[in-house]
Design a protein that fits this description.
Blueprint lengths: L3 E4 L1 H8 L12 E3 L2 H15 L1 H11 L8 H13 L7 H13 L2 E4 L10 E3 L2
Parallel strand pairs: 1-2, 1-3, 3-4
Helix pairs in contact: 1-2, 2-3, 4-5
């Protein structure tokens, strides 16, 4: 059975950089939000240039999950409750979407340590 994940920006950038820790997840079905997509495109633009950023954007577009109003509220509640962890808006929203979809979030961000439904790659 193929596992579906929510990939946060950290995970996607790790895969783009060919980080071997993410190799086991390369063939997984995954979702992201438009907020994660924006973070990834910015990072790729900064590291690899505009052409690669356009390519990555077009490749990831079909994996974007809808963000509901309930997701936004849940994300901001989480961000507020865990403010000492300094989760980004995109990370908090991604986590809320993953929870709604009942899938694990794949990340290398230690700010997610100990949260349910997290697969932490460190």
């Amino acid at each position: 059975m193929e596992v579906t994940y929510f990939f946060d920006s950290h995970a996607i950038v790790g895969m783009i950089k060919l980080d071997p820790q993410y190799k086991p997840f390369e063939q997984c079905e995954f979702f992201i939000t438009q907020f994660n997509l924006a973070e990834v495109v910015y990072t790729v633009l900064r590291l690899f240039g505009e052409e690669r950023a356009k390519y990555i954007c077009s490749r990831l577009r079909d994996s974007v999950a809808e963000v509901t109003d309930a997701d936004l509220l849940n994300a901001m509640k989480l961000r507020y409750e865990l403010k000492q962890r300094d989760l980004s808006y995109a990370d908090a929203i991604g986590y809320a979407v993953a929870q709604r979809l009942r899938i694990k979030i794949l990340t290398g961000d230690k700010g997610f340590t100990g949260l349910p439904g997290v697969e932490l790659v460190v």
